[in-house]
């Protein structure tokens, strides 16, 4: 599933910082998913955060999950919630970075 890309205001940060934020965002999303469904039920999990720098920071989150067995709940809802969690986490980090610039 591919959630819609969100556009987020950008503080003055380097490409390396953006790359690190994307990697940390992937980790936060993965942790969120593991808190919601048992690790044993997951056959495959792929989380990818793509961050592109222009006038704004464009965030594209891709999450693919396949399970060995049902663990209750709708996977599409979980994917949507995980993407929202990742977006909110990144927005919070960017706001903190922006406030440090002031």
Quick take:
With 102 residues, the protein is α+β, with helices and mostly antiparallel strands.
Describe it for me?
- With 102 residues, the protein is an alpha+beta fold.
- It has a single domain (6-101), classed as GMP Synthetase, Chain A, domain 3.
- It contains two helices and three strands; from the N terminus they run βαββα.
- It has a three-stranded antiparallel β-sheet.
- A hairpin with a 3-residue loop joins strand 2 (42-53) and strand 3.
- Helix 1 packs antiparallel against helix 2 (75-101).
- The radius of gyration is 15 Å and the shape is elongated.
- The termini are far apart.
- Residues 1-9 have low confidence and may be disordered.
Features:
102 residues, alpha+beta, GMP Synthetase, Chain A, domain 3
How is the largest sheet built, in terms of strand order?
1-3-2
Q: Which runs of at least 5 residues are low in confidence (pLDDT < 50)? A: 1-9
- Average residue pLDDT: 85
The portion of residues forming beta strands comes to 25-35%
Largest sheet data: 3 strands, antiparallel
Tell me, what's the shape? elongated
Percent helix among the residues?
40-55%
Q: Which value, in Å, is the CA radius of gyration? A: 15 Å
Q: Please tally the β strands and state the result.
A: 3
Output the structural class. alpha+beta
Produce the secondary structure layout.
Elements: E1 6-8, H1 15-36, E2 42-53, E3 57-67, H2 75-101
Antiparallel strand pairs: 1-3, 2-3
